[in-house]
Specification:
about 325 residues, alpha/beta, nine-stranded mixed sheet, 12 helices, about 45% helix, about 20% strand
Length: about 325
């Protein structure tokens, strides 16, 4: 019942946001296009700043009334936000390929976030133009969602209360990770217990010792001051995290063609721009970790890759035959 009530409240809030956006025309003869960018990360992260930059560019045309709600202001649950978009609310939501794969039952999409598959942010530049991406777009649109683009959002590593130098050091630890097929299989082969709770519960969970750590990108770890409760960082770089931006099919298709084209172009160009910004900023975040007493371990990544290999040998993520080769060929790798 509580989950249902929370869902209703989120829906009401989202509808209210859309109503306010429609009211933003200020007497213009032509109603502006309302859109709200809603995310769970802090306002200082690259993902949140990217959405604000897009909103500013849209508003500068005089055709849009774009607003930005981050840090869980609309909801701290990404899947719930995506569900609201699916229902037709004019939201743009940064999810990730693994979440979308689980939420919409498109298992091949997991390859974009699978451990140690994509390791170069430059690959994302060509991704929206690949036949694979267009196939996933078509599958999602049938379910009410438009898949706009992906943005590099950092490599995920382990932040723990005890040192992790080898795979065996993860054994038995309670780690907050993705609560989906990718997260569960990472835990299965690396030997930790995967705890799929919301990000807002992580700091107090580690503080109260119900969690032993988390796996996350450095910008989010820094923005959440994780260094106050963990003092060990293992540079495993097991996922290349991507923000997968999606919106409502109804909203997207309701825009005039020229506005829709500008919206899409702006989203994709700004995603590439901020992906590069995020890469440049990461060194400073790691330096800040050190300044706050975190010991950074440069682990043997080959050992972690070897531990993960059975995931692919057993095809636990249920990839279609030849998927990896096809993806790399379409990306020109």
């Amino acid at each position: 019942m509580k989950k249902f009530n929370r869902f209703v409240l989120i829906a009401a809030a989202a509808c209210a946001v859309s109503s306010l956006a429609f009211a933003g025309g200020k007497g213009d003869s032509e109603t502006k296009i309302p859109v709200t960018f809603a995310g769970t990360e802090a306002a200082t992260t690259g993902q949140s700043r990217m959405m604000q930059a897009v909103a500013d560019k849209l508003n500068a045309t005089g055709r849009f009334n774009a607003t930005v709600l981050v840090a869980g202001a609309l909801s701290g649950d990404t899947d719930a936000l995506v569900t609201q978009a699916k229902m037709g609310v004019s939201l743009v939501v940064p999810s990730d390929p693994g979440r979308l794969a689980s939420q919409f039952k498109i298992s091949d999409m997991n390859i974009l976030m699978a451990p140690y598959i994509l390791t170069d942010p430059a690959m994302l530049k060509k991704l929206p133009d690949t036949p694979l991406f267009k196939e996933w777009q078509a599958q999602l649109e049938k379910q009410g969602i438009v898949y706009i683009t992906n943005m590099y959002n950092g490599f995920r590593c382990f932040y723990t209360t005890t040192p992790v130098k080898t795979v065996s050091d993860l054994s038995g630890l309670r780690i907050r990770g993705f609560g989906n097929a990718i997260g569960n299989n990472l835990a299965k082969y690396l030997g930790f217990a995967n705890i799929g709770i919301s990000w807002g519960e992580v700091f107090p969970g580690i503080q109260s010792k119900t969690l032993d750590g988390c796996e996350v990108q450095v910008a989010t770890a820094d923005g959440s001051r994780i260094y106050e409760v963990v003092k060990n960082l293992a540079m495993t770089k097991h996922y290349m995290l991507q923000s997968a931006f999606v919106c409502s099919s109804n909203f997207y298709n309701s825009m005039p063609e020229a506005d829709r084209a500008f919206f899409t172009k702006t989203m994709r160009e700004t995603a590439l721009e901020y992906g590069e910004i995020i890469q440049k900023e990461e060194a400073g975040f790691y330096d800040n970790m050190k300044k706050n007493g975190v010991t950074i371990y440069d682990v043997d990544i080959a050992e972690f890759q070897k531990a993960i290999q059975p995931l692919y040998d057993n095809n636990d993520l249920k990839f279609s035959t030849g998927l990896k080769d096809r993806l790399f060929k379409e990306l020109g790798k």
